[in-house]
Amino acid sequence: MKSVQVADEHVPVLQRVLGGADAPDLREVGEYGKINYLVQEDITQATVAIWDRMIAARQSRMGPRCAAGLQQVRDAIWPYVGNQLLRAGMWLSGRRYEMYIDPVAQSVVHFTSSAMADPEGTSSEQRSQLLAGGGSGVFTWDELQRQQQALGQLDLLPVEAVSVTCWRTESRAVIHRANKFPYYSLSHFWINSHRVLEARFLGDVDRALCQPISEEEFLRLLAQCLHSPIFDAKLCSLGQFALGQWMENEWNRQSAVAEVGGEYYAAYWSTSG
Fold it and tell me: pTM for the complete prediction?
């Protein structure tokens, strides 16, 4: 089975590579697993720099041992700078599998697996609330209000976070990044991200704009968050921006959420200056 976030032309490569993998669990997931996303990713110096920032953020919050998994991914993809890899996320028997595939060498570059609750294990009533509206990715204010109660009852999902404080401009910013799986929708990611922040950067969801944001505007917001327009123009893989929405857009507070390739991003910025 596969979701709509799958590039069909890459499915045979993924199946061949997993079918010939040394690890038995990868062979099994290749035969029976559900593909949740499968995208082609350009590995650039900026890609490696993103991983470096996430590693540094996790080390500062939780210590070096907790960043070891991220370091392994970073080290695995670093030799492929200047090339393209396939990035896939799959699900089988209560486990999530995420991997990089070399389509030329037909080999697994790196993979991780983790146990988690089945995202389809909610009640039928709750699932109908979760999936009501927003099927195209974008969501309206009314749909967000309808989903908020059901989505807010689910366990918090982890996100990779980069936090920045600039005393010179009296500003604070946070960027959240996560693979699209296991989120139901862009709105699910947004509400989860909002709960992770405990509303420190955003007002009530009741005030959310839910208005379209362009790729240029979203990249500009990322650059503003991290005070580095040259670097952050490449934070998201250009050409893979699918859609995004402004959630706040005031002179002193801005936030937005976007779908980029196989990932979701949320950016929050505020200033008291």
Answer: 0.56
